[in-house]
Amino acid sequence: MLQESTAPAPLAAGPLPAGAAATAQPSPAQPTATQTLPAPPSEPPAHPRISIVIPLFNEEESIPHLYDGLVAAMAHYGKPAEVIIVDDGSRDRSFGLLKEIAARDPRFTIVRLRRNSGQTAAFSAGFDKARGDVVITMDADLQNDPMDIPLLMAKIDEGYDIVSGWRKDRQDRYWDRKLPSMIANRLISNVTDVRLHDYGCSLKAYRREVLQHVHLYGELHRFIPALASQVGGTVTEVPVNHRARQYGRSKYGISRTVRVMLDLITVWFLGTYATRPIHVFGTLGLASVGLGTVVGLYLTFIKLFMGASIGGRPLLMLGVLLVVIGVQFVTVGLLGEMITRAWFESQHKPIYLVRDVITAYTEPAEPA
Ligand code: UDP
Ligand code: MG
Question: Which of 44, 46, 136, 233 has the greatest number of C-beta atoms within 10 Å?
């Protein structure tokens, strides 16, 4: 850990440009990030209450403002906090700037990934380093407002395990950002049964013990609330501030929509059928074989009893296809059952997660 006990010279940030002030609406009670930043402590916090995890990819212009905003927000929040910034293989000056920050402020930890691995992997790397009771995630591009952290923490203190930010007044383009995300949010909400308005907002808070049961792959970071609820976490949301991107470019295009849909299928399937894949594939398979059999019986009947010629009928092809596909579905289901057993049994994973046990019995101590 890099440490420096002298008070820092503020990073050359200056105030946010006019556009930011127009779109950001910090409530009057909240201080804004200004030049008079409190000096950082000389030691990293021993027991941080929160760990702020931030994935960052090529955001050199945002970094000085991000630092100022975080320092002001941590002072505003008041409890011990650490920040983990994951440099996801940036190719600009980002890492150099982050290194300077870590040298001047021991609350900041920088994790640099060897190559650009995507936001989900970056989150995951940050979670592995986090020590706080609660993990807060947010973006590095200044679109989220760290001053909202106390709002999220108030819900955590009420007892929720996951608090998701809701960009009620989202500052992004309509047709390629807000519209697809509106449709996606509806769908995800219906399919996963976790009722949120805004899955895509990065500003979220998670109790760390819940995150330990969540395994992330691909671009599943949007589904962490759904995945966490699948392991028994309670989820809620609060409206948060959102600002337009000031610097750099968004790292995503419209093609993300397709990937979100595919991820939704994965999350739904694994959440519902991970321990019983035959129920999905078997049902589809039996339905298909059944339908194909009916078609076949009908064709046999008209051939045998009505003397019709069936050789050239498209229906014959359909019947055969349905039976073949049906058999394949059932086979895939059986393979799925074998993979499930291999997954759970090879790692001695239980198929349940215990929250509490209440019993008068105590395990006898191991003989010495
Ligand atoms: N990001 C990252 N790795 C990537 C893409 C993005 O760490 O491969 C970071 C990026 O620097 C930002 C956050 O993830 O802090 C969200 O990205 P972006 O702002 O481009 O997404 P949008 O807000 O447009 O959905
Ligand atoms: Mg953004």
Answer: 136
3-state secondary structure of 110: strand
Q: How far apart are CA 319 and CA 310, in angstroms?
A: 12
β-bridge partners, 166: 239
Instruction: Looking at the structure, tell me whether residues 188 and 67 fall in a common domain.
Output: yes
Task: Mark which of 222, 240, 273 sits at the end of a domain.
Answer: 273
Q: What is the pTM of this model?
A: 0.85
Tokens 């999220």 locate to: 152
Q: Identify whether the C-beta of residue 109 lies closer than 8 Å to the C-beta of residue 85.
A: yes
CA–centroid distance, 29 to ligand 2, in Å, is: 26
Number of domains observed in the structure of the chain: 2
Q: Nearest ligand, CA of residue 173?
A: 1
Q: Are residues 150 and 198 in the same domain?
A: yes
119 lines ligand 1 (CB under 6 A): yes
Q: Is residue 181 part of a domain?
A: yes
- Probe target for ligand 1 pocket from 56, 57, 65, with the most ligand atoms within 8 Å of CB: 57
d(Cα 312, Cα 356) in Å, to the nearest integer?
Answer: 65
Q: Could you tell me if 206 and 318 lie in one domain?
A: no
**Interatomic CA distance for residues 131 and 89, integer angstroms:** 23
Angle 85-88-93 from CA coordinates, rounded to 5°: 80
Any domain includes 204: yes
**Chain mean pLDDT for the chain:** 90
Residue 232: inside a domain, yes or no?
Answer: yes
Q: Give the number of whichever ligand sits closest to the CA of residue 138.
A: 1
For residue 260, give its domain range.
Answer: 42-273
Q: What is the CATH number of the domain that holds 234?
A: 3.90.550.10
